[in-house]
Design a protein that fits this description.
- InterPro entries: 4Fe4S-binding_SPASM_dom (IPR023885), Aldolase_TIM (IPR013785), rSAM (IPR007197), rSAM_sf (IPR058240), Sulphatase_maturase_rSAM (IPR023867).
- Belongs to the radical SAM superfamily. Anaerobic sulfatase-maturating enzyme family.
- Its cofactor is [4Fe-4S] cluster.
- It comes from Acidaminococcus fermentans.
- This is Radical SAM core domain-containing protein.
- The protein is globular and about 65 Å long.
- It has one domain: Aldolase class I (TIM Barrel), CATH 3.20.20.
- With about 375 residues, the protein is of the alpha/beta class.
- It is built from 13 helices and nine strands.
- The model has no long low-confidence stretch (mean pLDDT about 90).
- Strand 7 and strand 8 form a beta hairpin.
Length: about 375
């Protein structure tokens, strides 16, 4: 066996650490201490080919930074090499969108890239320092992307409903151009060493109320045609509904994992251009290379994953079905002070609303059965 092998579905290709913004909640600021090389080791293509050959499904290659658009030439180089080898891959990129050009839009559309733009809604200047959608030419370019996702980080400056409403406005504009809506994603802020803590001063009650109200609207319209004006809200809650369904029906409500649910280092590999491997794409701590023996690599990955140490607390948490142990980069102090509390504020109302809805259906159906007897 020449290269490390695993059941891998995604490879994050870490292009470099340079960025053109200074987001207040950046995960990488406290965790990245070493610059990445810009030179591509051709051996990574051999590695990617072996990964593809040992897996039945196509591999997703996610280009990552820093800000990956600053490495557009490298992205073009890698895609050309992959195409030349006829490797079956899908491509994606996570970007702040600020450096997007017309040439990039044409390239991403031609190569069927999924482009995820990080944007936090109406108060984005307070979280990210810059609003890409306030610049007409950048807004036009983003809306021209054929596979667009918007992703926000929930914080004291970005609450679920206002973010989704802002997403909705953009999605309607996007739909008028393409005939279909955008994809949406919401993450919860993580304190991996934030220099400023004001974004952690969250009104957890507000978060919980908004999540409950949105879930109740979702349940009221369950099985019915989704009103276009509620598309993004519906799409987000539906994601959580399916996560809950997967956990309790497919997984039978059991949490057997002893590693982070994201799969980083295991089903998700984090690879730089030289062939070094990392436990996560948001850290500069290496755990090996593509030439390492699998078991030595795996041992280092597992040694750095402390998910199992939180197992007792997680098993009694109402957010377990969604969170499943959370991020392995978040330390004990941050978990106790903000991380887990925000997870519960987001996810517990969804769980409780769906449970109550199911109970009402059960009681209603039992009543019908008794009336027929």
């Amino acid at each position: 066996m020449k290269y490390v092998r695993r059941n891998i579905n995604t490879v994050f290709l870490m292009l470099g650490n340079s960025c053109n913004m200074n987001c207040a909640y950046c995960l990488q600021h406290p965790l990245v201490h070493k610059a990445l090389t810009r030179e591509v080791n051709p051996e990574i293509y051999d590695f990617l080919e072996e990964v593809i050959n040992e897996n039945t499904r196509s591999l997703h290659l996610q280009f990552y930074g820093g800000e990956p658009l600053l490495y557009f030439g490298t992205i073009q180089e890698v895609v050309a090499a992959v195409k030349q080898r006829k490797l079956p891959m899908t491509f994606g990129i996570i970007t702040n969108g600020r450096a997007l050009t017309d040439e990039m839009v044409r390239f991403f559309n031609a190569q069927n890239f999924t482009v995820c733009v990080s944007w936090d809604g109406p108060h984005v200047k307070e979280t990210r320092g810059y609003d890409v959608f306030s610049v007409p030419e950048i807004r036009e370019r983003i809306l021209a992307l054929e596979h667009l996702c918007l992703s926000a980080v929930l914080s004291a400056k970005a609450y679920p409903r206002e973010v989704l409403q802002a997403f909705q406005q953009i999605s309607e504009e996007y739909s008028a151009i393409h005939g279909y809506q955008i994809a949406v994603n919401l993450d919860e802020i993580m304190d991996t060493g934030l220099p400023k803590k004001d974004l952690l001063a969250i009104d957890y009650g507000r978060v919980a109320r908004e999540m409950k109200e949105m879930t109740l609207r979702f349940l009221d319209g369950f099985g019915k045609r989704v009103p276009l004006e509620r598309y993004t809200e519906e799409a987000y809650i539906r994601q959580l509904f399916h996560a809950l369904k997967e956990f309790y029906l497919t997984g039978k409500g059991k949490w057997n994992r002893y590693t982070a649910a994201c799969g980083n280092g295991l089903t998700v590999l984090n690879l730089d251009l030289q062939g070094n491997l990392y436990p996560c794409h948001n850290t500069s701590r290496k755990v090996g290379t593509i030439r390492d023996g699998y078991f030595s690599y795996l041992q280092r990955i597992l040694a750095g994953d402390h998910t199992r140490e939180h197992r007792k607390e997680c098993l009694s948490c109402t957010a377990l079905a969604f969170c499943q142990g959370g991020c392995k980069l978040v330390g004990d102090k941050a978990r106790k002070e903000s991380y887990c509390r925000l997870k519960r504020a987001v996810f517990t109302p969804v769980l409780m609303a769906i449970q109550q809805y199911g109970q009402k259906l059960l009681e209603k159906n039992h009543g019908k059965e008794r009336n027929h007897q």
